Every structure is written in structure tokens, then in C-alpha cells.
Amino acid sequence: MNFQSQKSLLQIRLSKKTALLFFAIVSTIWLHAQEITSPDKNLSLKFELKEGGIPSYQLSYKQKAVIKPSSLGLELQNMPSFLDGFTITNTAQSSVDENWNPVLGEEKTIRNHYNELVVTLAQAKNNNRFIRIRFRLFNDGLGFRYEFPKQNDLSYFVIKEERSQFNLAGNHKIFWIPGDYDTNEYAYTTSKISEIPSLMKKATIDINSQWPIKELAVQTPSMMKSDDGLYINIHEAGLINYPAMYLEVDAVNNKMMSHLAPDAVGAKGYMQTDAQSPWRTIVVSDKATDILASKLILNLNEPTSYKDVSWIKPVKFIGIWWEYFVAGRSTWAFGKENNVKLTDDFTKLTPNGKHGATTERAKEYIDFASKNGFDAILIEGWNIGWEDWINNWKEEVFDYVTAYPDFDVKAVHEYAASKGVKIIMHHETSGSATNYERRLDRAFQFMNDNGYDAVKTGYVGKIIPRGEHHDGQWMVNHYINVAKRAADYKIMIDSHEAVRPTGLNRTFPNWIAQESARGTEFESMGGLAPDHTTILPFTRLMGGPMDYTPGIFQTDLSYYGTGSSQRVNTTLIKQLAYYVTMYSPLQMAADIPGNYERFPDAFQFIKDVAVDWDNSYILEAEPGDYITIARKAKGKNEWFIGGITDENARTANISFDYLPAGKNFIATIYADAKEANWNQNPQKYTVTKVVVNSKSKLKQYLAPGGGTAISIKEANAEELKGLKKL
Prior knowledge:
By secondary structure, the protein is an alpha+beta fold. 20% of the residues lie in helices and 32% in strands.
């Protein structure tokens, strides 16, 4: 072989080695780094293994960093953790684009469109024990979760802590409440992330049954805005058989990390494979309106397995409720005694003369509901046990089937039925979940026997089993068990003081609403800041519908002559707007009926407004400042608009381009008067009618702490005569 031939052979061999080396390098990179984009290409997710086999992800939006490289994993009790030592054994990518219809909702049809990456990670040092991390990237954000397949070396394990990091790209503006294992009922603080440590003590106000987290932490949903105009919301979806997640805050480095609610012995979760965590969600956009329009959290929940959902209906109701807080004439309790047992003879108690849930009072509310077209009335305090129900950590507190001597269950049921009105049951547990579970079937059967098809549950107080928390794994499973058992009896659930929602109203559609935040009742207990309800839709309502209990017309509570100087910090018109901006298929007209009779023209909007929708249009929004939303009623050519502002006067910019083209409609505009203000002249308003079409535009004045509400209906030529065209 000559020199030239030897040289050519050497080059061929070198080329093969180079190719093999290149292939090895590329293969190594492929095994350690994967990237997917959202369907619209605006979001990009990168996953890789860092040195030591540590899983890491990062997220960007339009090439702006949202989450910088952040580690993933879980620390386990008494066994090796899922934190490091991983190799990638498999990756898989797929795409889904489908539509589905919620039973009740803000949209008749929801699009579920995402690109998915599933990474299988094995630990050679632990007999190749493996987990999966599943990422779903939507146009509006990211969801990821941990999956623990069934395998020889992983059957049962206990979570010590989840270590999912959210390494933020800057010192963002954040709307937050303190991390707490037992309550979500704090007022919101708006600050920079770096300011959270100095503000935490002030933010952690006294609340019944609180358990603030020792570490610096905030609740989810956590809403943020970056200096370069990105809106970022971190929460979770599909919270089942797992404790709720909070966010520990490193305020120096702008980092957050998951923190789970513990149980009575400090464990964070008891798992058996096959199993998975809830989804961790990051909704992101450069438009605030996109955050409110996002259906990412709903999409990450499983479809319902209920075969029949025909009995699940939207509800508009009134109730014997607000008078307990403001009027000074009513109490939940029947007797004067403060030490009772369920075995006592309650007919022998000394009546306090202020019991609210009497047969006569119930009939008055039924008459009002029937006259004004409401579906139902809520009656709180009808059942025995309210004399010493709170702050005693009492287990046998209510039985849910025995009425006080002055409340005739059968008579009230028959009277309501004759008027075409349903009764909403009330099951306060005082935190005694064990007592409630023992009595659950009997209580639901009682409801079936007496014509009740919806119940408001409550969890005021420290939890029993003692040592458990409202947001721990045991209670998370309790709430779901109640919803599932209620479905067996065709009963709808509205839970108060429960863990914050995570989109489970898709999976359990009879769980139609929750409170789980600081609602209207706090307007009588210190008040709510005028910006509170411009924040809630970006935080608490990201997870699901809220029973906010709006509609308070008498906002100055000194009106009742009880000595209270408290006021509801809104205008009357802002209360109307809540029926559109605070989504729920269960909406209460929460004020005392007599107050609605004083303002019949404004009350008309509450009577007219829908509670279930075909479409929703987020017209404008800025967290903490203002929100304007339009919605189309389910199955009707009727639209309703709600606009609210914070403590500042504002002009809402309202378009009507969602109306069918070429047709005219009558718009009834409920507006703050020029002299109105949340703390002066809150009841000053105007009601006007105009003609609108799809080309109309409206600049509407909102008073400080005020709002606007608009109803739009089809009309014939005769009805349109004489009306001004907008």
C-alpha cells in the first residue's frame, strides 16, 4: 500500500472516529437536555440534568426569562430521596388539541391545546428506582407534575418535603398573603418580593384557627408582574391525595420553592405507587387579560367520571345569613346556654329571643325569593348545637338532622315547594371532620328526604382529627370524599374554609363553588380594601369559582343602630359588577331583603344577571387596579358587563364587538353618580338605557371604590324607539 493509500485509509478511520465522537456528544446532550415550545411558539421549556444528576427546568416567554434554571425533586422520609443521582432513560413528546364542554362555566367550550414532554429518570444508586416528570406547555403557561410508577423498589413512601424551585428572573411586584396551613382569609399585600420579609408580621393579622408557616412563605395562587411587563401566576392543579402547596420565599435571590402542609406528626404525604403529585402551574403572558382568560388549570384536571350531570344546575339565591353579621337582631344559636350536648333536650333551653332561623323568618325569605325569581334560599342556624360551636375544639358539635324547636323542617320544605323555591342546607362542621364523616350519609339522606339538593359546608375552627390542618393531605381527601359522596345523593357542594381550589370542579362538577378566601363577611369585621376584589380574580379565583356573597346595598353599617361604625368599602354599583367579575355558578344576593326593596331599580340587575355562561370576554384588566369583563348568558342572546376599580376613580373602556353584527340591542347601564365614592355617597347611582351594536364603544366613569354593571338584551323596533344610540 502506497503512502497516499495509507493516508486515505487513516483519514477514513479518523472521520469515522470523529463521527462516532460527535454522535456520542450529541447523544449525551440529548440524554441530558430536552426543549419544547408552546403551540404558538411564544413559550419555551428546557429540561436538563445538572451536575450530579439533578433535574432542572427553565421557562421563557417571547425570549424573556420567566423561570431561570430551577431544580426539581422530592425529599423522602427514611429512604433515599428523589433529588439527585438521576440519569435520563427515556423521553417522549406528544401534542394534544381537543375541545371539551364543562358542566358549568365561564365558557361553553374550552380548548385543551398543549405540547407535552415526559422524562423518565432513574437512580442507578437505588436499584434503578425511577420516576417521571411530565411537562405540558400551553399557549398560556406550563404545568408539570411528578409521577411514581409501580415498580419493585418503590411501593410505599412518605414525603418529607417537595423541592420544586421557581427561580424568578427578577424582583417582581407580587400580590400575596402569608403562607398558612389553616386559612386563606388574609388581606392581600402588594409589594416587591424583596419587601416580603419586612411586611410579613404586619400581613399576618389575627384570624380564627390560623397556623402561619415558620419559614418565610406565601400562599398560592401567587400573582406577580415583572418590571419588563410579564404577568406570572404560580399555583397548582388537580390537588388529590396530596397536601396543598405554598411557596417558600428567598427574598434576596428572588427564588421560591414548594412547601407542603404537614400532618399531625410532621409528614407531608403518604404515597403508594402508582401515584402522582398535583400539577404545578405557571400561567404567563404579557397581557393581564390573558391571565384571567386562562383555562390551563381546568385543562390539567381530569374529566368527570359522572355518567349523569343533569342534576347539577347553576343557582342564584338569598339567605338568612348577612343579618347575623350586621343587624344585631339575629343569632345562629337558639338558647342562652353556652354548654350544650347533642343529647340535651333543646326544648328546655332558655330562648335568647334572637334566633334567626325560625319557621316564620324562613317563610318571609321564601316569599321574597319567589317574588323576585330566585332559585333558592340558604338557611343558617336551623339545627341544634350553635350555642357553643366555636373555639372549643369540640367533636360532637352538630348532628345535621335535628332542628331547633322554632324551626319546622317539614313545614318550611312544603312552603318552599309550593312557591317553587329550593332550600340550601347548611352543614357547619366547626372543623370536626371526623364527626361530619360519621354522620355524612344520614345527613345527605335527610336532605334527599326533605327536598334539599345543595349544601353549604363550613370548616371554621381547628381541625379534628386534632393536629391535622385544613390544607393537609387528610383534609384534602376529606373534601373530595364529601363531594363524591354528595354526588351519590345528587347533592351540590359549596365549601367554606376549605383548601383553596385547584380546578377540581371539572372532575367533581357538583363541587360548584368554594369560599377559601377573604369574602364579603369580612366587610363587617374590619372591612376589605377597595382594591381587594381587583386582586382576587388574579389569585384565589384562578383555581375555581368563589362564593364571594356579593350584592350588599346598605354599605354603611351604622344604619342598623348597633353602634357599629363599620362600612362596606364599595359603592352600591360595584356590588352589582361583582356578579360578572367574580365568577361563580352559585351567586348569592347577600343583603337583607328589605335593603333590595329600597333600591328596586338597581336590584333589577341582580334579578336579571346570569350565573352560567356561553362566552366570557376579558375587556381590560390590571391586578390591583381594575377589571372589566363581558359575558354571554348560557343559551340566551343576553350579555352582561361588570367593571370595577380600586380606590381610584377611573374610566372603563368598554367595547361591544362580541355582539352579533348588524343587530341593535338595548343596554341598561348601571353607573356610579359623579358624586359617588366608596366612603361618601356610596348609594348614589344612575340607570340609563341606550341602543348598542357591535360597533359601539363606551367610556364609563367609575367612582373611587366603584364600578359599572350593564345588561344587554335583544329588543324589537318598538322598544328601541326614543332611545339614544351609543
